[in-house]
Amino acid sequence: MDFLNGATLLLDVAKPTGMWEYFIFGLESLVKNYGLTIILITLAIKLLMLPFDILNRYINKRNSAKMAEIQPDLEKIQRRYGSNKEVLNQKTMEVYKKHNYNVMGSCFGMLINMVATMVIFFTLFSGLNKIASYKIYSEYETLQQVYAEEIGGHGAKLVLPEGGDTVKLELEDGTIVDLDQQKVAIANQKVINTYGDIKEGFLWIKNIWRPDTSASIVLNYKDFKSNTKLSDSDENIYFNEKVYNQVTDSIRKNEKYSGWNGYYILILLSAGVTYLSTQVPIWLGQAKARRQNKPYVDALGQNKIMLYLMPAIMALFTLFYNAMFAIYIVTGALFGLITSPLVTMLVDKLNDKKTEEENKKVKVSYSRK
Question: Could you give the angle at which helices 34-81 and 85-98 cross, rounded to 10 degrees?
């Protein structure tokens, strides 16, 4: 929902208009829930990227199998020409050519897939941060308006006069008056009720624009400025720490909103599921190799470090950034975990079919001789 329609802005904080922001705002207007919105967008992204993932894993599978096949030849020339790098390189390339092994094949496919994944990851990360900044500010804008108008009527604003240290009320006609203390308690309760209506939560997470951690549900003034990218130069008689605290103190002191924002569940899931989504295909491949009494060909090769590095990176992102982005990471990892065995089976079938075709060609060529 748009909180600022018809409201007078305290600051000129524009609604973000990037590509991801357009899709997220548009879809949320239909499903009415930001958590569900990011899940649907993540699934759409993963489905679109799935063919590239299949192709990349197929290329890696083919090249890993080919490398295992030519490894004995490479070891022979290494023992024979290891002292002469020029000759060694020449003989190595001859072996590659003989076995039709393309050194750049797997690298190119992996590079394309990695670049596309990174572009989506960081542009969406940036878009979600911009949305979070806007929503955090717009929620406060609404609460400030509700508080002021509950005491002073339509068009009233909270104000800290220059040189003053007490928050006052500016009426619609510009008159500045003291706060009616009898109405302050009513305004505080109205703010608490309004926050309950407008805050964006999802499952156990109280505020989706905050991390799924022990972080406070409602930000203090310093964190509010940091999260909304506002600076000291943005402060004025309407927007400052005293006015902010006047509006939000009642929410922070309310028992319902004074605890943790989450329970670190998304952080644990992001690390665990990311690890499993990469590890499960290896376990399946090893089990298949044992059943067929064949050596297991590890398609990851030298990239095994990613098995442990990626879960750590995902955990850090979910630990320090808003829960919306954490939901994206966890949803993507779960999609990978669920589809990975299916992709593995498909890649194995494609690889087996290709190997069978190549073996038939070899037999035909020998029979003609």
Answer: 120
Q: What is the phi/psi pair of residue 260, to 5°?
A: -70, 150
Sign of CA dihedral 30, 35, 39, 44: positive
What are the start-end ranges of the H helices in 82-102?
85-98
Asked which of 127-131, 202-206, 263-267, 356-360 is least confident by mean pLDDT, the reply is 356-360
**Number of Cβ atoms within 10 Å of the Cβ of 334:** 20
Q: What is the model's pTM?
A: 0.78
CB neighbour class for 211 (10 Å; exposed up to 12, middle 13-18, buried from 19): buried
Q: Find all residues with CB under 8 Å of 51, minimum gap 6, and list them.
A: none
Is residue 157 within a helix (H) or strand (E), and if so which, with residue range?
strand 157-159
Inform me whether the pLDDT recorded for 36 exceeds 90. yes
216 backbone dihedrals φ, ψ, rounded to 5°: -65, 150
Q: What is the mean pLDDT of residues 276-283?
A: 79
